[in-house]
Amino acid sequence: MTRTVPPASEPEAQTATAPKDVAPAVALHTGTSDVRALLTSNLRQSGIYVAFVVIVALFAILTDGTSLSPGNVTNIVLQYSYILILAIGMVIVIIAGHIDLSVGSVVALTGAVSAVLVIRQGMPWWAGALAAIAVGLAIGAWQGFWVAYVGIPAFIVTLAGMLLFRGLTLQVLDNISLSPFPSEYGRIASGFLNGLLGGNGYDAFTLLIGAVAVAGYAFSNFRTRIARIKYQQPVESFPLFVAKIVAVGAVVMAFAWQLAHARGLPIVLIVLAVLIIAYGVITKRTVFGRQVYAIGGNLAAATLSGVKVRAVNFWIFVNMGFLAAVAGIVFSSRSNGAQPSAGNMFELDAIAACFIGGAAVTGGVGTVVGAMVGGLIMAVMSNGMQLMGIDQSIQSVVKGLVLLLAVAFDVYNKRRAGTSR
């Protein structure tokens, strides 16, 4: 007598076939989530780039193309290079959860020291530059000691420094301006490299440097993409990746083309490029850089992980003092002298560049490249409004609103991310 086995019930049948039917759905869901996470993580930075392009195009239209003329593009580089240098150091300070209000006064004091040695004492131009850097390092060590080892908040220490170093500037200069610097010193911020490779109506060397920069950017991004794929991290599609490289390359070469048709490659741009590359590597690929992000992201966790918080904070401010000194040299070279009021409000421009460029108010977030884009947004806006003859008071209102909206966008993103969890 044979026993008939009843057919499996519907739920049991679904369970039996689940591994075959559900697996593709899970894989598809995971892929969609990865893409969504990738787009979300890049939204803020991509938005900054889009905003920069829109602002450049807007002022090009409003000024009938004057803002994109070769001469004006060169002037933007020369006029705002010292703010970008300050923003490099400031973004590291902000990532670590601090702030530095003294950098404008440090710019003034280091420029004053250089002017006294070179103009008043007749020393070589390089001696003045080295003395300015030494003063900047000493100031950074002074402020880093109070913040890292005494435990006074950076806001208070640097607010005191803003007053202290401005007073020392007045003492060093005897309340008067000193000028002019020798021509060698002036070339730091106003010199150009041109004619090295010739060119018919343009500087071929500038175009070559632009092409090298594009090639380096493409190679670096390709290596990063390969590494992310190797560790099974989400990446954008290859056509989108290529489109991004082509878009950035087109912008860089257009920028180089404009410089090549003006006065060639500014020396200060080379200094700025070296600093951007160096600090990009430091923040992304060194132990020190990872520790800075760890401190800003979660101080308690960083401490428990063995990060020497005091030492890292100390060197963060030493580095800020160094970059403020470099900015002081560039600004005094650009001004061809030292003034007691030099560097006024520079700290606010540098801070605004960092926040507009994606740095978080609470620390732990930010990039050197983002700070540079934020600084360029401020530079293009200021330059464009000046070309349009807009009153200085209105310019301040616009800058303030842009900064407020940038921080509001950061807060909105964090709230949305918290809600999604």
From TrEMBL:
UniProt-recorded name of the protein: Xylose transport system permease protein XylH
Xref: Pfam families: BPD_transp_2
Bilayer topology term: Multi-pass membrane protein
Keyword terms, alphabetized: Cell inner membrane, Cell membrane, Membrane, Sugar transport, Transmembrane, Transmembrane helix, Transport
Cellular component terms (Gene Ontology): plasma membrane
InterPro entries: ABC_transp_permease (IPR001851)
Location(s) in or outside the cell: Cell membrane
